[in-house]
Specification:
- The complex is a heterodimer of chains A (656) and B (100).
- By secondary structure, chain A is mainly alpha-helical.
- In chain A, 71% of the residues lie in helices and 3% in strands.
- Chain A has 26 helices and 2 strands.
- In chain A, a hairpin with a 2-residue loop joins strand 1 and strand 2.
- In chain A, helix 14 runs parallel beside helix 19, helix 16 packs antiparallel against helix 20 and helix 17 packs antiparallel against helix 19.
- Chain B is built from 3 helices and no strands.
- The chains are: A mainly alpha (656), B mainly alpha (100).
Chain lengths: 656, 100
């Protein structure tokens, strides 16, 4: 029970690494920085494995395992401990974070080898690991929020890693500010929670919430908490309407995109929704909002992904879209499916990003897929691992993405929350997104690896990446292929292992769901599941086929031919003008108010006026008063007499 | 017995003379003497009240005032000496280096 008793070790190791590299690493050789950066995360991963081993032998009565280390905040009746919490959901998250995080650290030693600020990079990366582990291990919302903000900070630091580049520092600021909008909602949710439950501890909140009935008749504070928390989650997890920062975040180094903006941090929103599953099942309206936001985002981002030409931006929109799937899963009450997809997505999306990094590395920094082509023969190891990741995300049968995506689509279709025909609508959008996913992923894949080279072979010397980069790719490729086997559905001869594993976490939430009637169970039988599964596979195959026809057979990098197609293409290429829309709706009015009202009126006239006015009045009074000091001793004498006379008069007047 | 009001009146007259001399005379020694006059006018008032109220408080105050006046005379006369030496004059109008 060593690690379970000393849970703080798991986050503390990366923190130590961050402190060592960050404070003292400036003049260290890369080998030492590597040893500390990779070693601390590796040890943290080992500690996490040991934690899982100990957790497995824990009696069910002791789950969730909560361990408080010190009292952190006491104010009135509010009390928050530095307490860590382990249950099945935490186990999945901690393993994903430390495992994938460690692989990405190893990869970074190869990818960042020729970059400046090497120690800074590893320090930030380790600091990110610390905050992310705090986020997933926290036993109350307050501590979770520390991790939540901390990962946001590290995200900002790492997006702006090349801070001399204006677009990079702008992107960092954008990510930070957009997240702040969501965090506002998250904080309000916490305040409401404290007001109604008197505590922010998970165990306490869920214990009290367990006695409530679902808010179906009218909307109450639980719905408010759910919606506000969703606002926070949309910021962190890049959902509509706050997704705009994630594509810009691709300005950061590629391992950062893989770790923070694909595998771990952006899934924090999904984690929070799943962690608060009980609150969401008690507030069906908020749950529906989660489903709609997720579904809309999935489709929306996938369509934008179709026309992006930057290899990392394709993956960024794909991440937004896949996160939409996870929200959709949570929104239809299948929290375990959301977490399952979170896990498989962490594998294949980290793989795809790292693979993209390997391609960029091979191309000497080129990110435009229109200027690639024919790389299959030149970088075979990257090609094969990327193929595994692309097949996984496209949902090719037996790959990890197939099982998790299929679980989400099936749960959407058969959800007890969605009355027909809405379940069909959401399922159809999910299926459409699956087709688009296969299409844009294979578009990217074909344009990168197949066809004729579209770069100058004299100038670009394509070379395979070093072993430090290929080894993590291989491990992640393996996980992308087999990772889905933990969730093979019953209908395919599996036993839904991950659903059963996570069921203790979502048990209390599921009790609050509407009961499954016999007619419902009858309607959504295995037969229907096979049909829907077949449709999804067929859709994915169709997506691949379209991509093949368009981008390989015809060697066309563009989607559009007709006038309508060109219009749609322009709309997509400009990302539906959402950035422009936000600029006109929020940024410009804010600038106007700041300049005209706050600066020129309030600050320049009001505040400066008051300050300068006070100074001017004091100076004018001084001008007058200084005349008293004439330098003439006899005038002083006169003043003394006058003063004494006035004083005496006042005294006499007071005495009477 | 002479009524107390007579003494007080004398004290007020002496004090008033002191004030007038202090404000209007230019000679620094005269001003100095005017200050002494005012102090002694106050002493007279103190003693009068002491006598009338039958307590010793006023007389104690007078002793203090005399001590302070002696100290003041020591410092003041030293200043007067320096002024005379530097300006070859006792006219306060000529001590005006701090003038605006």
């Amino acid at each position: 029970m060593f690690v379970l008793d000393q849970l703080w070790i798991i986050p503390a190791l990366p923190l130590l690494g961050a402190a060592l590299n960050g404070l003292a690493g400036k003049n260290w050789p890369q080998k030492r920085i590597n040893a500390i950066g990779v070693g601390s995360t590796g040890l943290s991963f080992l500690a996490a494995l040991e934690m899982v081993r100990e957790f497995a032998s824990l009696p069910a009565a002791q789950v969730p395992w909560v361990k408080s280390f010190f009292v952190w905040i006491v104010a009135g009746s509010f009390r928050a401990d530095f307490a860590l919490h382990v249950d099945q959901l935490t186990v999945v998250m901690v393993l994903v974070v430390t495992g994938v995080g460690w692989l990405i650290h190893i990869y970074s030693t190869g990818y960042m080898a020729h970059e400046g600020g090497y120690y800074r990079f590893f320090s930030y990366l380790n600091l990110f690991m610390f905050f992310m582990l705090i986020l997933v291990l926290a036993a109350n919302y307050a501590l979770l929020f520390v991790g939540w903000e901390g990962v946001g900070l590290c995200s900002y630091l790492l997006i702006g890693f090349y801070f001399l580049k204006k677009s990079a520092s702008d992107a960092g600021k954008k990510a930070f500010i957009v997240n702040r909008i969501g965090d506002f909602g998250f904080m309000l949710a916490m305040f409401l929670m404290f007001r109604h439950f008197g505590s922010l501890d998970f165990t306490r909140v869920f214990q009290i919430a367990g006695s409530y009935e679902p808010e179906t008749a009218q909307l109450g504070f639980l719905t408010a908490i759910g919606l506000l928390m969703l606002a926070g989650a949309t910021g962190k997890s890049a959902q509509i309407p706050l997704y705009v920062w994630l594509p810009d975040a691709m300005e950061g180094p590629t391992p950062v995109s893989a770790l923070i903006h694909a595998a771990t941090m952006v899934t924090a929103g999904v984690y929070v929704v799943a962690r608060s599953s009980l609150i969401y099942t008690l507030a069906p309206a908020a749950l529906l909002a989660v489903a709609i936001v997720g579904c809309a985002t999935a489709l929306f981002a996938a369509t934008i992904g179709l026309v992006q030409n930057d290899i990392k931006r394709v993956l960024a929109y794909s991440t937004v879209s896949q996160l939409g799937y996870m929200f959709l899963a949570c929104g239809v009450g299948a929290f375990w499916a959301g977490i399952f997809h979170l896990m498989t997505h962490a594998f294949f999306k980290a793989l795809l990003f790292l693979g993209a990094g390997s391609v960029i590395h091979a191309m000497g920094g080129e990110q435009d897929i229109r200027k690639m082509g024919g790389l299959r023969k030149k970088i075979p190891a990257t090609y094969w691992t990327m193929l595994a990741g692309t097949l996984a995300i496209a949902g090719a049968p037996l790959f990890s993405g197939f099982f998790s995506k299929d679980a989400i689509l099936w749960k959407t279709a058969s959800s007890v929350y969605l009355a027909p025909p809405y379940n069909r609508y959401l399922w159809a959008i999910g299926l459409g997104t699956a087709i688009l996913t296969a299409l844009y992923m294979f578009r990217m894949f074909f344009l990168t690896f197949f066809g004729e080279p579209r770069y100058d072979e004299q100038e670009v010397h394509v070379h395979e990446s070093p072993r430090a980069m290929l080894a993590p790719l291989a491990v992640l490729a393996f996980l992308s292929v087999v990772g889905g086997l933990v969730g093979v559905p019953e209908s395919l001869g599996g036993n839904d292992a991950i659903e059963h594993f996570l069921s203790p976490v979502f048990h209390s939430a599921e009790e609050k769901m509407p009961p499954v009637t016999a007619a419902h169970a009858d309607k959504f039988s295995h037969d229907l599941e096979y049909w829907l599964m077949g449709a999804a596979v067929f859709g994915a195959a169709m997506g691949v086929f379209i991509a093949y026809r368009r981008f390989l057979a015809g060697k066309q990098a563009r989607l559009a031919h007709t006038a309508l197609g060109r219009g749609v293409g322009a709309l997509l290429e400009n990302k539906y003008y959402v950035d422009e829309f936000y600029d006109a709706l929020v940024v410009q009015p804010l600038k106007w108010i700041s300049t005209r009202v706050l600066w020129q009126a309030v600050d320049a006239r009001g505040i400066d006026g008051a300050v300068n006015g006070a100074a001017r009045a004091a100076r004018a009074a001084g001008e007058r008063a200084r005349m008293l000091q004439s330098g003439n001793a006899r005038s002083y004498a006169a003043w003394v007499v006058v003063g004494a006379a006035v004083f005496t008069t006042v005294l006499i007047w007071l005495v009477q | 017995m002479v009524p107390a009001s007579y003494y007080l009146l004398l004290s007020a007259v002496l004090f008033g003379l002191g004030v007038v001399a202090f404000v209007f005379k230019r000679n620094v020694i005269t001003m100095f003497m005017a200050i002494e006059l005012m102090l002694n006018a106050v002493n007279l008032a103190f003693v009068t009240f002491s006598r009338q109220l039958g307590t010793l408080d006023g007389q104690v105050f007078v002793l203090f005032v005399i001590v302070v006046a002696a100290a003041e005379a020591a410092v003041g006369l030293a200043i007067v000496m320096l002024i005379a030496r530097n300006r070859q004059s006792l006219n306060v109008e000529r001590v005006d280096l701090l003038k605006l």
